[in-house]
Amino acid sequence: MNVSVTFEPSGISGLVAQGTYLIDAAKRMGAPLGVGCTRGKGECPACAIEVKSGANLLSSPTNLEAKLLGASGLADSLRLACQTKIEGQGEIVLAVTSYRPKEAVPPIDLSADIEKKFGELSLNQKIAALLKFEAITMSQAFDAALQKPLAVGIRAFDSLLARARAAKANAGTKQSDTPNR
Description:
By secondary structure, the protein is α+β, with helices and mostly antiparallel strands. It folds into two domains: 1-107, Ubiquitin-like (UB roll); 110-181. The protein is built from four helices and five strands; from the N terminus they run ββαβαββαα. The chain has a five-stranded mixed beta sheet with strand order 2-1-5-3-4. The longest helix is centred in the last third of the chain and has 55 residues, at 123-177. It is flat, with a radius of gyration of 23 Å. The model has no long low-confidence stretch (mean pLDDT 80).
């Protein structure tokens, strides 16, 4: 059976099958979630989401979620999309968050360190490093470009399907309203 999933604040929504992990649903629909996620390893909070409604339709929190999000995170309805599977039928509303563990070390300005190390490289090493960075950037841009049309296509298909169902329902209503002769 299909389950309705909505990602806030973007409003992206669609139908996914039971048994789907939330990270896969987000990727299919083009929701901005999980950049940097280690995909199921539970080593990062990159795919942390807040469950606004439909928590009862989701799998129980895993040990990895308890470890990374802590009791307070789970109490605040936070889950890791890569660890959370849709198990029931209904409607789920999720909010994309920028959750960071409270115990985390404050961010360090790495740009100065990177600039210093880059400055110490030879010209050939600098060129090689820049080519690697460009290849990584192009790969990520290409992946993002491929995902957007899929999300738009899925939403367009869902809209057309809803219109067809409404037209069919209206046609059935009109036929039952006309008297038989």
